[in-house]
Design goal:
The chain is mainly α. It is 67% helix and 3% strand. It has 38 helices and 6 strands. The strands form 2 sheets. The chain has a 3-stranded parallel β-sheet. A 3-stranded antiparallel β-sheet has the order 4-6-5. The relative contact order is 0.05.
Length: 775
């Protein structure tokens, strides 16, 4: 009826690259797609899975540095949604994904993500699977689709005799006696029905009662090259591309393919040739003697590598699997390392780790594999596994040149400068690296520059600001007279801005933040540019210049335009909401928080949803919508949001107290003191915060004397913090623990003024609970 159709099938034999289903699906859809507009960002991301679409879309190969893996994954997922939306813009779209019980986990995760976003589009997803073997990832996908009311199952049982007879007549010209024999033999199995009917039509008077026997009969009519072609197709475990057919080590590949097609076992679909059904392939593969099977796997691996050298899409994961099945483990190690790199480039970190573990099972002392594994595990936030890999790498590098060891330590420093933010580990790594370079008398300017910059960052954010300044001066001296690239400018400016912020010299942080943000944007890293503008906004907010903070956030938003980095956009919106809330522009703060929540819902990430609920809860509290505030803050606490849990509980206790739900408010205070605390919870401020909320509860309960006493304790507590707790410390603590440089800024002077106003109001009125804007 005019629908655009795309289909794909999981690789039978294992070894499929991450997003393998989608790579095939996108390739299938490509010829039917209109060319996207030149300013669309999503084609650059989807062509990473299907490079052949670059010509179709008339776009050059993407040339940009990768963002962090979590952001790359988010961008990839958003691009897939945009592709489906574009494909369904002017006609219905049917997407058929076969055999999801053996599909890679990344492909299944992306199916669920896209499915959530297309409910209003004319798109039909058809997923097929067998009940066995069991597949946890496929089960999770089915459960997720069911939970959203998006799943309708069709269970395929045996065909009734009349349907078997109808299918037999369609498959071959048979008399009624033979049709009856097919019905008796096939026992309702559609595939066996077709193969038995074809066997009878070939003159086989006693067709096999098994599929394997029926396939043997069809195989017998093939020439030697035809059988060889079918065997390669069985070993490949997927449809063969035309370029792969022509590269087969067969004298006449085209003639061999034609003969195999005439047997009825294989079919041509567009540019591909493969078995008509996976079970036919299984039957041919099962009949291959082991020595022949191993030789075919080795030959097919070599064919794939020849195709790659000729310009075809690299298939390192497949090559590795075939080499291992051929018993060529040593050669498979290199391919598994390449497969890990390919997986990392599409942010499939779990699969990358699996490839590296498999490679290390055959080459346990290979230091480059161990360091890469540590890198991947660090980005997965698995610090223990990252450290284990690093220690093994150090053991393998014993006696290596100083520069090689220094580079290993610097790589470890990068791990703790990303998803796992551990300034002390960065400091230790850089100190070790620089000591190695000094002891060996090696200048190594790039490595020394990196070590000094990272060490300055660690000191600036969680160490000695004076030491950070000394390191920055040494770095400046090292770079004197040398041309400075954008990454160097970013490293220096970022560390210098943090040092200024930590010292409370917020206005001094503007210039280095701007320089770093502009430099790293030129280098093609909008994710890092965002951090510079967010830090600048935090500095401006801490300096009391909220209008300038909003302008910095505008620059951050501009840096993210058309990048597909929705997660980073969400964090900018949260920062905007916090700044607007602080200056009392509640309607705008609510709009920003609601937009961020919409993005979190679109992304479907539980952590982001909980974080958005926290930010909306604070706006509701400041707006006087106490019931909604209590509900939203409860949702934030129930999730895994990167928030201060003690402070969120106190905010919820306040909302409950103001809503008159005093017992619940008291219970929330009890839970507050049971929460473990971090630097970003500012434990030294918890006593005045608790006292303030206790005062609100007492006032609401009518105990005016206790309310005044607790409010006075809050005032006294904040007064003692004014000279102790600096805004610079509070900003870097929140940045280190939560990665949110604006949200959560603590300013004791503002808190003291608020507590004093509330105390004066209590004394003046003698009753009631004064309403205070959240600081």
């Amino acid at each position: 009826q005019g629908a655009l159709i795309g289909s794909c099938a999981a690789l039978d034999l294992g070894g499929a690259a991450p997003f393998g289903l989608w790579a095939e699906l996108i390739s299938e859809l490509g010829p039917g797609l209109r060319r996207p507009p030149p300013d669309a960002a999503w084609p650059d991301d989807v062509t990473r899975l299907a490079p052949e679409l670059q010509a179709r879309f008339e776009r050059p190969a993407p040339d940009r540095p990768s963002a962090t893996p979590d952001l790359e994954r988010a961008r990839m997922f958003e691009a897939a949604v945009a592709l489906v939306e574009w494909a369904a813009q002017d006609r219905p779209l049917l997407l058929l994904l076969e055999d999801i019980h053996i599909a890679d986990a990344s492909s299944l995760e992306l199916i669920g993500y896209v499915a959530r976003r297309i409910v209003s589009l004319p798109v039909l997803f058809v997923l097929t699977r067998r009940e066995l073997p069991r597949a946890d990832s496929a089960d999770r996908l089915e459960h997720a689709l069911s939970a959203r009311g998006m799943r309708s199952d069709l269970a395929l049982g045996p065909l009734v005799p009349a349907a078997v007879a109808q299918l037999a007549r369609a498959a071959a010209t048979l008399g009624e006696h033979d049709v009856a024999r097919v019905v008796q033999t096939a026992e309702g199995n559609a595939l066996l029905t077709v193969e038995t009917a074809r066997a009878l039509s070939r003159g086989e008077h006693e067709p096999s009662a098994s599929l394997r026997g029926a396939v043997r009969g069809a195989f017998g009519s093939l020439s030697a090259d035809g059988r060889g072609f079918a065997e390669f197709a069985a070993v490949a475990a997927r449809e063969l591309e035309r370029v792969e057919v022509m590269a087969l080590p067969i004298k006449d590949p085209t003639g061999a393919a034609t003969g195999a097609l005439e047997s009825g076992l294989l079919v041509a679909r567009g540019r591909r040739v493969g078995f008509r059904h996976a079970l036919l392939r299984d039957a041919v593969y099962a009949d291959l003697p082991e020595p022949r099977r191993a030789a075919l796997h080795e030959s097919w691996a070599e064919t794939l590598l020849r195709c790659e050298r000729a310009g075809s899409v690299p298939r390192a994961a497949e090559v590795a699997r075939h080499l291992r099945l051929a018993g060529r483990d040593a050669e498979a190690v290199e391919q598994l390392a390449r497969a890990a790199g390919d997986a990392r480039r599409v942010a499939a970190l779990t699969e990358a780790a699996d490839y590296l573990h498999e490679a290390l099972s055959m080459a346990p002392g290979q230091s480059d594999l161990l360091l890469e594994l540590g890198d991947v595990q660090a980005w997965r936030a698995l610090r223990g596994e990252a450290e284990e890999a690093f220690q093994r790498a150090l053991g393998s590098l014993a006696g290596a040149p100083a520069l090689e060891l220094a580079r290993a330590w610097l790589r470890r420093a990068r791990w703790y400068h990303g998803t796992i933010c551990v300034p002390d580990a960065v400091r230790q790594s850089c100190v070790e690296a620089l000591a190695l370079l000094d002891a060996a008398g090696v200048q190594a300017v790039p490595e020394r520059r990196e070590g000094l910059a990272a060490l300055a960052w660690a000191e600036a954010i969680a160490g000695s600001v004076a030491e950070a300044e000394r390191l920055l001066a040494a770095l400046q001296e090292l770079m004197a007279g040398a041309s400075s690239d954008d990454f160097s400018t970013y490293d220096i400016g970022h560390a210098r801005a943090l040092a200024a912020m930590r010292n409370g010299n917020f206005e001094d942080a503007y210039a280095p933040s701007i320089a770093a943000g502009e430099a790293i944007a030129r280098a093609g890293r909008p994710d890092l540019a965002y951090g510079c503008w967010a830090n600048a906004a935090g500095s401006a907010a801490a300096a009391g210049d909220c209008e300038r903070a909003l302008r910095f956030l505008d620059r951050g938003a501009a840096a993210l335009a058309n990048t597909g980095l929705a997660i980073v956009e969400l964090h900018l919106l949260a920062a905007r909401s916090f700044v607007l809330l602080r200056i009392g522009r509640l309607d705008e703060a609510r709009a920003a928080a609601d937009t961020a929540a919409g993005l979190a819902e679109r992304l479907g990430d539980p952590e982001l949803l909980a974080m958005a609920a926290h930010d909306r809860g604070l706006v509701a509290l400041a707006s006087g919508d106490f019931g909604k505030a209590a509900e939203l803050l409860e949702a934030a606490l129930a999730g895994a949001a990167m928030i201060s849990r003690p402070l969120t509980r106190l905010a919820r206790a306040e909302a409950l107290a103001r809503a008159g739900r005093l017992d619940e408010a008291r219970g929330e205070l009890h839970e507050t003191v049971l929460e473990p605390v971090r630097s970003s919870d500012f434990p030294e401020t918890l006593v005045p915060r608790l006292a303030r909320v206790q005062g609100l509860i007492a006032a609401q309960a009518g105990d005016h004397e206790l309310a005044i006493r607790r409010s006075q304790e809050a005032v006294d507590g904040w007064r003692s913090q004014v000279s102790r707790l600096t805004s610079g410390y509070s900003m870097t603590a929140v940045l280190t623990d939560l990665g949110r440089p604006v949200v959560g800024l603590i300013e004791p002077a503002r808190e003291l003024e608020r507590a004093k106003r509330e105390l004066e109001a209590l004394k003046a009125t003698g009753q009631g609970v004064p309403h205070a804007v959240v600081s």
